[in-house]
Write a structure and sequence with these properties.
Number of helices: 10
Helix content: 40-55%
Number of strands: 7
Largest sheet: 7 strands, mixed
Order of helices and strands: HEHEHHEEHEHEEHHHH
Distance between the termini: 34 Å
Length: 219
């Protein structure tokens, strides 16, 4: 099992009904069922071909009536409301779209591949409580992990917390610095090119300056 998946599994909590949206191979659902952390689970993927990988892995749980495969876009097609929903490996905007078209689950664990800020903004505006919101490194890449509950939060995130993640600013880690230092270096190299349009130079230049200023502030 790759380190990213193992880390996400370590953050999963007990639930009555669990759903893994965009489940890929189904490893995280297998973890939930093997550990007895849920009564039943749904595995969902927009591609029937992709879902077959998870169906093969979870065949005995499907046969026992504890796991239900669903070919669907996002959370559509789930037969009941799930109290813990995992969405990992999709873009932040795509995760927002999935939640908007369905519902904000009682508990959620979200691992966006990019646009984490747009996901944080959506969750904050919905009044969700973000209990964990941090960056971790695995297999040579950096990821953001956001978990929390549908209620109990507020629209009190600052713009910096939306951009970087509140927990990262309160307790910055080596993984957090590593992510943004890598991002700053990429932006610096890009901005040094002569073929960058004036508009992109302005937008990405502001992003670069924001990252550098925040890193200096936290050190």
């Amino acid at each position: 099992m790759e380190r990213r998946i193992a880390y996400i599994c370590s953050m999963l909590s007990p639930a009555r009904v669990f759903a893994d949206i965009g489940c890929d191979h189904g490893y995280m659902t297998e973890y939930m069922l093997k550990k007895g952390l849920c009564e039943r689970a749904y595995i969902s993927d927009v591609s029937a071909k992709s879902l077959k990988k998870a169906e093969k892995l979870l065949a005995r749980f499907i046969a026992a009536g504890k796991c239900f495969p669903v070919v669907a876009d996002g959370m559509r097609g789930l037969r009941e409301e799930c109290d813990l929903v995992l969405i990992a490996g999709l873009g932040g905007e795509e995760i927002v779209k999935i939640l908007q078209e369905a519902y904000l689950p009682a508990r959620f664990l979200l691992q966006p591949m990019h646009n984490s800020d747009k996901l944080r903004r959506y969750l904050s505006e919905r009044g969700a409580k973000l209990e964990r919101d941090h960056t971790f490194a695995a297999d040579g890449y950096y990821y953001d992990l956001i978990c929390g509950s549908a209620t109990g939060g507020g629209r009190d995130y600052t713009e910096s917390e939306i951009f970087f993640g509140r927990e990262n600013l309160v307790c910055p880690t080596a993984d957090f610095f590593g992510k943004w230092e890598k991002e700053a270096e990429k932006l610096k190299d890009y901005l040094a090119r002569k073929d960058v349009s004036e508009k992109n130079r302005e937008i990405l230049g502001a992003r670069f300056e924001r990252i550098v200023a925040q890193m200096e502030k936290l050190r």
